[in-house]
Each structure stands twice: as C-alpha cells, then as structure tokens.
Amino acid sequence: MTQSNDYDNIPGTYVYNAERGRIGYALNMFCMSLNKAENRQSFKENEPAYLDKFTLTPEQRRTVLARDWLGMLKVGGNIYYTIKIAFCDGLTFQDVAGMMSGVPKDTYVQMMLAGGRSVEGNRFKDAAKAAE
After folding, report:
1. Could you tell me which of 57, 62, 71, 69 has the C-alpha nearest to residue 22?
2. How far does the chain reach from its first CA to its final CA, in angstroms?
3. Which terminus of the chain, N or C, has fewer Cβ atoms within 10 Å?
4. What are the tens digits of pLDDT across the range 32-61?
5. How far apart are CA 22 and CA 76, in angstroms?
6. What pLDDT shows up at residue 97?
7. Residue 68 to residue 118: CA distance in whole angstroms
8. Exposure of 115 by Cβ count < 10 A (0-12 exposed, 13-18 middle, 19+ buried)?
9. Neighbouring residues of 21: CB distance < 8 A, sequence distance ≥ 6
10. Structural domains in the chain?
11. Quick one: how far is CA 25 from the chain centroid?
12. Which residues of 30-60 are buried (b: 16+ CB within 10 A; e: fewer)?
C-alpha cells in the first residue's frame, strides 16, 4: 500500500479500498471463478494448475495454497470473494473468522454473541496515536 490512511494504524485492519482492489484484482477474479461448479471441481483436482490461469503474484498464490486467510486480505483479497475458497473446503464463515482471530470456531461464535472482541489494547498500533 502506498497511500497512508488513518485506519492503517488499527491493528488487524485490512480495509478493502480502491488501491487494495487494484492490487488484488487477479486474486479476486480467481475467487469469483469459483462460483461455477466446474471451476470448483477443476480447482479441487489440481489447485496449482488451476491457479496458473490467473496472473497472481507469488505471494497471492502462496496465500491461496496455504489457506492463509489473513494473508489473502493483506495482498488485496476481499473477504466476500476469498470466502469462496473456504466454501470449496467445506468451511463456514465462522470457521474462517475463528482462524483469522486465532480462536476455535465455537469460541469465536461465543465472542460475537457476547458483543465481539474488546477494543481495549486494539485501538492503535502505536502509542503516540492513542494519546491524540
């Protein structure tokens, strides 16, 4: 990301903006291709070969093959698109959200039902920003 934004200072935040959209275009188009059953089947049969059809960066390719869900967002993936990979794997959104939060699915669900994760200690990456 080249332009700095206020939200860049919030830990764990990967806002999908126009710049991230440009960076992640090929990744998101791959994910959208999974809307078709025949493409999902082809992807499941040979993931590396299927990914060759798209102009992914090496890091985007790595994140898909490793199922690095947060990594996909960092390299321009949109959660609404990348979740299609999870669905191919038989995962739910709660499964993936738990993995991205570092907690088991049931713990994640209970955390959300209780109002979500506390903002204490999660507001800013640097202390100087917090003092403002």
Report:
1. 57
2. 24
3. C
4. 999 999 999 999 999 999 999 999 999 999
5. 8
6. 87
7. 24
8. exposed
9. 28, 76, 78
10. 6-131 (1.10.700.10)
11. 13
12. bbebbeeeebbebbeeeeeebbeebebeeeb
Residue with tokens 């209780």: 114
Q: Amino acid identity, residue 101?
A: S
Q: Two tokens at 112?
A: 């959300």
Q: Which residues of the chain, if any, have pLDDT below 70? A: 1-2, 119-132
Tokens found for residue 129: 């920003």
Pick the closest to residue 30 from 44, 51, 48 (CA basis). 51
Rg (CA), the chain: 16
What pTM did the predictor assign?
0.81
Q: What is the DSSP string of 25-85?
A: HHHHHHHHHTTSHHHHHHHHH-HHHHHTTS---HHHHHHHHHT-HHHHHHTT--HHHHHHH
CA distance 98 to 96: 5
| Structural tokens at position 63 | 């994140």
